[in-house]
Hints:
Layout: H1 2-17, E1 21-23, E2 26-28, E3 35-36, E4 39-42, H2 53-62, E5 66-67, H3 70-78, E6 87-89, E7 93-98, E8 111-117, E9 126-130, E10 137-141, E11 145-149, E12 162-168, E13 173-183, E14 194-198, E15 207-211, E16 220-221, E17 226-232, E18 241-250
Parallel strand pairs: 6-9, 10-12
Antiparallel strand pairs: 1-2, 3-4, 4-9, 5-9, 6-7, 7-8, 11-18, 12-17, 13-16, 13-18, 14-15, 14-17
The structure holds 2-acetamido-2-deoxy-beta-D-glucopyranose (3 copies).
The site of one 2-acetamido-2-deoxy-beta-D-glucopyranose has 2 residues, from loops.
Amino acid sequence: MRVFSLLCTLGFLLKETQAWGFKNGIFHNSIWLEQAAGVYHRESRKGRYQLTYKEAKAVCKYEGGNLATYEQLEAARQIGFHVCAAGWFDRGHVGYPIVKSGANCGFGKIGVIDYGVRRNKSERWDVYCYNPDSKECGGVLTDQQRIIQSPGFPEEYQDQQICYWHIRARLGQRIRLHFLEFDVEEDTGCLADYLEVYDSYDDVAGFAGRFCGDYLPDDIVSTGNVMTLKFLSDASVTAGGFQLQYIASNASLFSHNYTHYFH
Ligand SMILES: *[C@@H]1O[C@H](CO)[C@@H](O)[C@H](O)[C@H]1NC(C)=O
Ligand SMILES: *[C@@H]1O[C@H](CO)[C@@H](O)[C@H](O)[C@H]1NC(C)=O
Ligand SMILES: *[C@@H]1O[C@H](CO)[C@@H](O)[C@H](O)[C@H]1NC(C)=O
């Protein structure tokens, strides 16, 4: 059932991708970037749409920044920052920047979609922060293969880490993740520290697994040419970290008998 609905979602996404194009030999089916011109999107550690205005401000401040202004969001959008999730920004506004409208995104408009000043500051949304000096881990990876490591590996990773890796392979390719070492603080439900894998160009669609503990996850193979990895650590107890390798290969090289792993 879960696989079926995932496939439906992907079918929809694949149709959507036709509108995107090649850039530097890489087929981008999203120009979604995690960070652009100092602007970045954050959701609560508890998930999507969980932050009050006060909490949203605290998230940005904690990372040494501020709520993004409308002008900063628009500047980021103009270089391709596209996130289909509403967040608080400066002066109590809620909205999101998009460069392409979709079925559930933008109401047929593109630009900074601004819901206006929210009178109720207890409403819960994501947040858009601005910090020109923010130190991020992760990045957009377009190599055919790479080793991905938790920050500081083989040293223990730090507290309060938030990393996104976006793997973009060529059109028609698939990506295989192969875990080499894995040691992330363990708790039931992996709420404290975790690595999440999405079979998608963002951390909204295509959830493929959330991992913690010291059990080495099985290989994960994408259905398309993009994958997103997200690593979060909380304010206490760190562990050894993880190391994995990804390899992009022509889809035809994956035999029909490949297994897609879900956890
Ligand atoms: C404000 O929003 C919160 C969260 O959605 C809700 O629980 C509360 O009732 C709202 N308050 C008013 C005055 O509308
Ligand atoms: C993968 O596909 C591309 C384009 O179809 C082709 O040029 C390339 O030789 C293929 N690579 C392998 C290893 O089969
Ligand atoms: C999957 O198929 C390939 C080639 O088609 C074959 O070499 C391999 O042994 C198969 N693996 C399994 C687990 O059946």
